[in-house]
């Protein structure tokens, strides 16, 4: 689940960083690879899984409403775990989830 989150967050961050206001931002898989810290072949596998689960569209690379819901829910659960003092996640990654 954390890998899915990292990939979706990478796509979202690229969309935000590249948004020129004209709605034509393009996300390049290699940029998402760098943001998610995965080997390209692994990224390609996970992108296929995310597309099969209807969380992304691969051409052009974008997040669907279902993918955005996953990101929101994952962040909410991670925040809840932090508040409850449960340390299931690496604390450095969880802190980054709040951004």
UniProtKB/TrEMBL annotation:
* InterPro entries (alphabetical): ArnR1-like_HTH, WH-like_DNA-bd_sf
Q: Which organism is it from?
A: Candidatus Nitrosocosmicus oleophilus
Q: Where is the ArnR1-like winged helix-turn-helix domain?
A: 25-78
Entries under Pfam families matching the protein: HTH_45
Q: What is the designated name of this protein? A: ArnR1-like winged helix-turn-helix domain-containing protein
Q: Which domain of life is it from?
A: Archaea
């Amino acid at each position: 689940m954390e890998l899915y989150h990292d990939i979706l967050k990478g796509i979202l961050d690229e969309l935000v960083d590249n948004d020129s206001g004209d709605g034509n931002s393009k996300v390049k898989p290699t940029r998402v690879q760098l943001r998610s810290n995965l080997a390209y072949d692994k990224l390609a596998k996970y992108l296929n899984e995310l597309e099969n689960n209807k969380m992304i569209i691969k051409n052009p690379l974008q997040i669907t409403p279902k993918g955005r819901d996953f990101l929101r829910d994952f962040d909410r659960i991670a925040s809840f775990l932090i508040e409850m003092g449960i340390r299931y996640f690496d604390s450095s990654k969880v802190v980054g989830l709040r951004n």
